[in-house]
Structures are given as C-alpha cells and as structure tokens.
Amino acid sequence: QVQLVESGGGLVQPGGSLRLSCVGSGFTLDYYAIGWFRQAPGKEREGVACISSSGSTTTAPDSVKGRFTISRDNAKNTVYLQMNSLKPEDTAAYYCAAKSYKCTSYPSLFNSWGQGTQVTVSS
C-alpha cells in the first residue's frame, strides 16, 4: 500500500524553524517527484517546494524563497522541508505528495498524498 506520512509540524514563534519530514512506505521515493503543499483556512492549496526524481528542486511562492529548503534522503525514503525564519503567514496545514519524475505546481497532478501536519507560527 502506497503511503506518505508527514511529521514535524507544531507551534513555533515567529523567526523560528521547523523541519518537516515526509516518509514513504510501500514504494520507493527515489523515482518520484515529491512536492510540499500548504493550505491555510479559507485559502487554496499552494505549492511550496518540490524535488524531482533527479534531485532538482524548486521553491515557490516568492514568499518562501530563501527561507524554505527541500531535500531528500533516499536511504531513509524521506523528503524534508526545512523552514527557517518562519512568519505568521506560514501558518497552514502542510502536505507532501508524490507524482512520477518531474515537478509541477499543480496539486491535481500529484497522485498520492499524506494526511498533513499542522504548522502554527504565533507568539
């Protein structure tokens, strides 16, 4: 059974850091593009970062560039999202998702999704 499980969310003060993990089971993440998405209440789901099967990475929107970094550890079948200098507007449920090979910013093109992990940035 193909499954993605996110962890690492929580409550953090503005300026703090969190590292989210996305662990795959039932399949090998190496062959997939893994994207991180977030969805705040009342807003559409948006792509945050993506890493392709070849290891190339993208981050979007501009508001997270320079603060968020995506990486993968194939030995652990895990993709990480390192989030630094967190801001209240980063508050959202964060999801990881998988699709074949290449990244895209369109959530509908990702086939498998995790259950999400909540990130709350507040003082």
Write the layout of secondary structure elements.
Elements: E1 3-7, E2 10-12, E3 18-25, E4 32-39, E5 46-51, E6 57-59, E7 68-73, E8 78-83, E9 92-100, E10 112-113, E11 117-121
Number-wise, the strands total 11
Q: Span from first to last CA?
A: 40 Å
Please tell me what the overall shape is.
Answer: globular
The assigned structural class equals: mainly beta
Strand % is: over 45%
The topology string of helices and strands comes to EEEEEEEEEEE
Mean pLDDT: 94
How many helices in DSSP terms?
0
Helix content bin:
under 10%
Uncertain spans: none
Biggest β-sheet strands, sense, barrel = 7 strands, mixed
C-alpha Rg (nearest Å): 13 Å
Verbal overview:
- The chain is mainly beta and 123 residues long.
- It has strands at residues 3-7, 10-12, 18-25, 32-39, 46-51, 57-59, 68-73, 78-83, 92-100, 112-113, 117-121.
- The protein has no helices and 11 strands.
- It is globular and about 40 Å long.
- The model has no long low-confidence stretch (mean pLDDT 94).
